Amino acid sequence: MNLASLKVPLFLLAAILLVLAPIDLTGIGLPWPGLKRYGTFILSLWLVTSIAAMGVNLIVGYAGQETLAQAAFLGIGAYTTALMTKVGVPFAVAFAASGILAFAVGWVLGFPALRVQKHYLAFVTLAFSVFVWLVIRNEEWLTGGVSGIQDVPRPSVFGLSMKSAANFYWFTLAITGALTAAMWWLLRSPWGRAFTALRENAVRAESLGIDVRGYKLLAFAIGSAYGGLAGSLYAPLVEFIDPAPFALGPSLLYLLMVVVGGAGSFVGPFIGAIVAVLMPLWLETGVSQIANPMLKHLFSYLLVYAFLVMVMMAFCPSGIAGLVERLITPKRRPHSDDKGPTLGTARASASQTGTKP
Amino acid sequence: MFDFLQLVIAGLATGAIYALAAIGFTLLWQTSQTINFAQGEFVVLPAFITLIFMNGAGLPFWMAALLAIAVSMVILGFVFKSVIVDPLIQHGALPLVISTIALSLFLKDGIKEFYSAEAQPFPSLLPDTLVSILGVKVSIAQIGTFCIAFATIFALNWFLSSTRTGRQMQASAQNPTVARILGVNVERMILYTFLINAALAAVAALLIAPSQFAKFSHGEHLGLAAFVAAIVGGFNQVRGAIVGGLIVGVIDNLAATYVSSVYRQAVPLALLVLIILFRPQGILGRKEERAV
Amino acid sequence: MSRVLEVRDVAKSFGGVHAVRGVSFEVNEGEILGLIGPNGSGKSTLFNCILGQLTPSRGDVLVDGRSVAGLRPSELNRLGVSRTFQLLQVFPQLTVRENLILAGQEHVGSRLTRLFGARDSGLSGAADRMIDFFRLGHLAGEKAGGLSYGQQKLLDCAMAFMAGPRLVLLDEPAGGVNLTMLGNLKERLQAINKETGATFIVIEHNMEFVMSLCTRILVLAEGQIIAEGPPDVVRKDPKVIEAYLGH
After folding, report:
1. Nearest-CA residue of chain C relative to A345?
2. Which residue, A80, B201, C175, C180, has fewest beta-carbon neighbours within 10 Å?
3. Exposed/middle/buried for residue C117 (C-beta within 10 Å: 0-12, 13-18, 19+)
4. CA-CA distance, C26 to C33, in Å (whole number)?
């Protein structure tokens, strides 16, 4: 089976299924009653999570940097949108403002960090996560503190209200589609090539005229902007925001879900987001059938998740996407083995090319 | 003025604990290029191990504490190295970074699920009695904490510089290839580093828990303080980590009083940004050649 | 003949070790200058100082009469100074053609055209010509990681020429390359030198290769220039022989 030739049909099929998901198809003879309100909500949440994860994937999977602040950028977007739309600013303006603000903050944060050593960006974003959470929690006059902001309005498009779960889902789906297309374009442009180059071998890339520092910064700022845009959709989706989803813990989860899905693979963030959104639900239903309280604790969401990531890193650093590709791609001549780029590429290729025969 | 001095002394006591965590962090980085993002949780878990020995097995505090240090060295030293670090190190830095991030979540959530989500009171060897030295009021516990932390640091320093094993460890850190040629068992030296890191973290945990209680979520702040201390001091120097730890502790304490206690946790960020902007190589660090 | 590169009294020490101690020389347009010397003589350090990879402790480097001190390697590259590395450095996940497009893309257009413009920055044609020039035509669509060592070495060199540089620094281009490929490489380098008038500086251990390729040789020992001149003169210089045999 050749995966590459199936990519377009598979993508179209997924798009059609996603559009039809909330619709009752039993009327035309198909056994699909349509997703109910809650199911539609979960699907919307998956889309929003995927947008944020795409941003992380750009930073981590393509540009080889580390970000521990994606939830903080979601928070920036969510609060910007909530505050603006509550005073009557149109959603489109708030959405754009959220993205631009997250981009600008990402730029200001990344600029000093990327001047120095590797991993400094991780520390700076880690500290920044804590800082954003403190601001959201403590500046009650602006953010409502721990009691948050209630009744975030849902937008209307050309007079059509997005109040219903299904309408808002389609709205989110359309925006996700547009952002996915934009990411696709970005990664296939010379910028995308430069990102790959600096991840694989920054010194060589620099010697070829590629402004490594500038491209790293761009990748980080754009990835963060995706976080802000995701947050901007998250606020009207849940209609009530408080500090908890924007703390350090969720930021770490965004990084981990991308890794589980497959960092450096285009579909990786979508897969990772499915796992991240659905796993708590599975575990909840599963655990409710367990009587032993000690065992119940064992199936705590974070515990299982963290364990999964550690196992994954040891045995399959290219994530679920890499695993799937490895399983369905037939073995070929070893030298043209085009397994997807993995997190370990930089080191692996260095050792490959670093020794003289 | 005396208030200020009091705060500085309290800050030095906390800072000495940060220094312990930062030294371990730096040692791991030097010898095995491991950036341990779970370092904060390493400074939390031993306190809970102690509590388990005390409440579960009914042991006296001192015995529980010593056992906790030993158990930590096994779990956070040996097991951490052989299960998490060794299989990943050849894949490069990023998978290992991610795995230690997952480990930090794993430990944090494990403590919350299996022990308690509440802050646990923790016994102290030393009383909180205030004594007045030249008009400055300090508690015996603070002086004790500072003394124990520095005794540990001096012991480590003596070990590294005056024993054969210690010097072999330093050689392995500075140039593993040459060390290997000279017959040093580099692998074993790296293992020692992991054990030392775990022991330092355990001592730090036992020292910090009495004043701040033991809570699953404390690792976030402790970890951040340790990272920032290491970076402020110069990232790859033990001396730097000590100075960095003390600076972070003092500034942390002063800011909590003079600036705002709710933003206390933001102090490391501010310090980090200042250091990166004005002295990226750290206070004691040497200027390195550009990364790219 | 204009002066492309001028190195003025460049020195570099690491801690207490003086790797390069005050080296000065000039390179004229179209020259192929060989830089030789025993291991540890400071060749690579000097290279890295010229290229902005290391900051010299002292001295100045001028390209086309303009000081390039403090420029980042990427900025220097966009001024027309290009290089290869001692250890092979291609991008294994990209195809041969994409490696070459990457090597040229930062020299055409602007940041914005690189985002919104053509995916290949209009360089496919140039890349294919370069691929043909280095006789890699049948491999254009292959991932670089799948090429043989010698082919990767050719690609590595091709990448250095992709942006039409004025000055190219080649760090051990012959290292690890088999004899057939070596002849091919030398002949291609000479051809490109004749065709474009580009200036080369070559670090090389393979004496036969360097003596037949270069028009002038500079010998470095213990961080200083001990001899300079045409290959035939340098070959017979007793100081050079001593520097090599003494180590």
Report:
1. C93
2. C180
3. middle
4. 10
Q: What pLDDT, on a 0 to 100 scale, did the predictor assign at position B2?
A: 67
Q: Across the interface, which of C78, C85, C105 has its CB nearest the CB of A190?
A: C105
For residue C29 the two structure tokens come to: 């347009």
Structural contact between residues A300 and B111, judged by C-beta atoms closer than 8 angstroms = no
Using CA atoms, how far residue B106 sits from A46, A301, B46, B103, B220, in Å, is 24, 10, 15, 5, 13
Structure confidence at residue A354 (pLDDT): 35
Handedness of CA B51, B57, B61, B64 (dihedral sign): negative
d(CA A42, CA A51): 14
Q: What is the DSSP string of A152-176?
A: PPPPEETTEE--SHHHHHHHHHHHH
Return the half-sphere exposure (C-beta side, CA atoms, 13 A cut-off) of residue C84. Answer: 28
Which of the residue ranges A6-20, A46-60, A266-280, A320-334 would you say has the lowest mean pLDDT?
A: A320-334
Q: Determine the pLDDT at residue A336.
A: 39
DSSP letters along A54-102, please?
A: HHHIIIIIIT----S-HHHHHHHHHHHHHHHHHTT--HHHHHHHHHHHH
Kindly report the nearest CA distance between residue C9 and chain A, in angstroms. 24
Q: What does DSSP say about strands A160-161 and A156-157: parallel, antiparallel, or unpaired? A: antiparallel
Kindly provide the ipTM of the predicted complex, given to two decimals.
Answer: 0.90
User: For the segment B40-70, what is each residue's pLDDT rounded down to a tens digit?
Assistant: 999 999 999 999 999 988 999 999 999 999 9
CA–CA dist B44, B223 (Å, integer): 10
**Which among C115, C163, C176 has the least Cβ separation from residue A189?**
C115
Query: What is the rounded CA–CA span in Å between residue A85 and residue A153?
Result: 7
Can you give the length of chain B in residues? Answer: 292
A193 closest CB neighbour out of C88, C105, C146? C105
What residues in A contact C82, CB-CB < 8 Å?
A: 207-208
CA B279/CA B272 separation, integer angstroms = 10
pLDDT exceeds 60 at position B159: yes
CA distance B249 to B262: 16
Q: What is the pLDDT of residues A289-320, one digit of tens each?
A: 777 777 777 778 888 889 988 988 888 888 89
Query: What does the block give as tokens for A353?
Result: 């090319």
pLDDT higher than threshold 50 for residue C217: yes
For residues C75 and C69, what is the distance between their CA atoms, to the nearest angstrom? 11
| C176/A357 CB distance under 8 A | yes
How much is the pLDDT for C80? 92
Residue B4 has pLDDT above 80, yes or no: yes
- Provide the angle, in degrees to the nearest 10, between the axes of the packed helices A248-261 and A120-138: 130
**Percent of chain A clearing pLDDT 90 (strictly above):** 60
Q: Which of A282, A281, A279 is nearest to A306 (CA)?
A: A279
DSSP letter at C143?
B
DSSP bridge pairs for C167: C81, C199
Whether residue C34 contacts residue C204, with contact meaning beta carbons closer than 8 Å, is answered with yes
Question: What's the rounded mean pLDDT across residues B100-114?
Answer: 93
Q: Pick the closest to residue C160 from C197, C128, C198, C132 (CA basis).
A: C198
> With 80 as the cut, is the pLDDT of residue B291 above it?
no
For residue C2, the Cα-to-chain-centroid distance in whole angstroms is 19
- For residue range A72-88, what is the model confidence (pLDDT) as tens digits? 999 999 999 999 999 99
pLDDT at A348: 38
Query: Cβ contacts of residue C135 below 8 Å, gap of 6+?
Result: C154, C184, C188
Shortest distance, CA C231 to any CA of chain A (angstroms): 27
Mean pLDDT of A33-42: 90
**Residues ≥6 apart with Cβ < 8 Å to B74:** none
Nearest to A77 by CA among A198, A239, A266, A233: A233
Q: What is the mean pLDDT of residues B99-108?
A: 94
